[in-house]
Design goal:
The chain is mainly alpha-helical. The N and C termini lie far apart (180 Å).
Amino acid sequence: MQVVRLGAVVLAASFAFTASAQDASQDLKKAGHETKSAAKDTGHAVSKGTEKAYDKTVDGTKKAYDKTAEGTKKTYDKTAEGTKKAYDKTAEGTKKATNETLKGTKKAYDKTAEGTKKTADAVTGK
């Protein structure tokens, strides 16, 4: 009976050892699968984050472009407006100067004609 008991104990121990060996093997497989799954999840998260960052960069670049174009148009319009005002003032000043020069020339002509007549009268004795 002791041999039977010993055989039963040895048999039970071998089953326990085999079961624990299988559990360790299964644990390693499970750990490997979980590591693989975690690496995939991390890769997907990084990819998604990179895509979001790219999209935000594109949006920011478009906004900056639009603001720059808007600012450039405003600057162009202000410059054109300022140039027109300067042109109008210059044209007005030129016209005024021309009229003043014309008046001065006519006045000088009249004075010269008057002086010439006085000199001619003085020479002829009138």
